[in-house]
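Exercise: predict the fold of this chain.
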Amino acid sequence: MDSDSNIESINGASDVIRISIAMATYNGETYLKEQFESLFTQTRLPDEVVVYDDASGDGTLSLLRDLKMRAPFPVKIISGTENVGVNAAFGMALEACRGDYFFFCDQDDIWEPQKIAKFMPWFEDHDAVGLVFCDTSQIDPDGNGLRNSLWKQISFDKKRRQRFERRPLAELLRGGNFIYGMATAFRTESIRTFCPINADPRGMTHDTWFALHVMATGWKAVALDEKLVRYRRHGRQTTKKEDIGEAIGSQARKAARRVRINVLIEAMQRIEHNIATTPPKSFKTSKEEALRQITLKISHLMLREHLRDSRNPFLALRASISLGYWKFAKGPVSVLRDLRGL
């Protein structure tokens, strides 16, 4: 955490904090005002907004101070002195939140007026719910609507939602993330044990880190089939300066993929450890089953990367009958691609 000199105290602080919003900013002055305006007009206001600014070099910090003065709720600004990246930035904001429930908020989207009001009954009326997330509409950099909703674009369709309702952890581990931070809220009790976010964002971001922990510890997750965020699609949607995804050339892309897979495996292993060492009383479901699923996912990722590196046909035969390739990939099609090093 930064020194106290970098933390600007909450204006109008209240003793009762139910709903917190955790935001991370980095060179976000272009869209930040529009995002805050959508927070100002929520039909149910948050009790606080905590912003960690990740050492912005533009006018973001000055704009945040102006917005703080206008806000109809308390705002705390934490100014970072060096760029730490999306996971650490959100982690810093979350650490300073005091609410019983918190929403992640990006710097460049727009929340529909009833977002908070639509989410909260799921928490307040259902003690077992630890996570709620929703669909989003999508907009271009100028705010114009795009054709598909987020769920439609990523194929989180009715069939997959039904699988998610039956086995939420297993469905998330299948791959193809469908829980996006800007469309997600958590019960603080469900995730405090798993702070800080001990994952490299190149392999796993803050939203997936917490979602996996929450589901593995037995909390119920709710997929809210409403578009309550306008998700802005543009080329700068991270707080980190460098982006390994911009690597050019075949070899560079393979090297970037290897890094992503390795740091993903490391993150999964840390989650496995966290779940294994969490006291049993924290669980509302089978700890052994959650660990079995996570261990299977790790083994699959390791086998897949080994096959890509070795191009060994005998290993490909082993892979073709492994449960992981059928559960987390596309069976023989994925085996053949990996055997070719693609």
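Check your answer against the key: Residues 216 and 289 are 9 Å apart (CA to CA).
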